[in-house]
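Morning!

This is the sequence you dropped in the shared folder:
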Amino acid sequence: MRKVGYRVTLQLLKFGREVVGIEINPEGRFVEKTRALGIPLLITNARRSENIIKAGVERADAIIPCTDDELANLDIALDARELNPGIKVVMRMFDADLAQRVEKGFEIHTAFSTSALAAPLFAAAAMRFDIKHSFYIGDQLLNLSELIVEPGSQLINWTLKKLQSNLDLSIVCHHSQEITDLHPNPALILKPGDRLLLLASLETLKHLKDLNQPAAV
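The structure's back. Tokens below.
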């Protein structure tokens, strides 16, 4: 559990997700800090498939290999995909050409993690947010994300004005029935299948994802 992995863990815990960590070095800098968070941390080699099985990869929703070795990350990612074909894989990479080939060939989301964006972007990708771009304004991380209004969504019949004011986000574009509007009317009412391009924080995107589902009975 290195620096990026620890930061990703903090982000995922903020989202209310269950996390299991793997660290090969028992004397690692973030081992005690991670354990202090109250999550399981296995001291083992994640490149061995039996070890990610012990961590629960076969029932996991997502896996984030984010070591400093991109080939190790790819090895872990491919093992995870073989063991759990439906798992969301988000992988740390440094080589842009290799990342492009990996994304195209294996449908694995890659992230470049040499900047302060790394941890929130890894966590957001694992949460299955459709983020197109992220950037900081001051200390605030903003994300350009696409939302498709699902059938049965709690957002159906909301106006754009209500969506923006209730969730503290900005709508950049609205698309419906082959019509794209860069300046949509705030009184427009959302329908299933509508597409929105919006700016929001990760916390807002999580809330939006929850609302874009049928209400719990």
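Headline: DSSP finds eight helices and ten strands in the chain.

More detail when I'm at my desk.
O.
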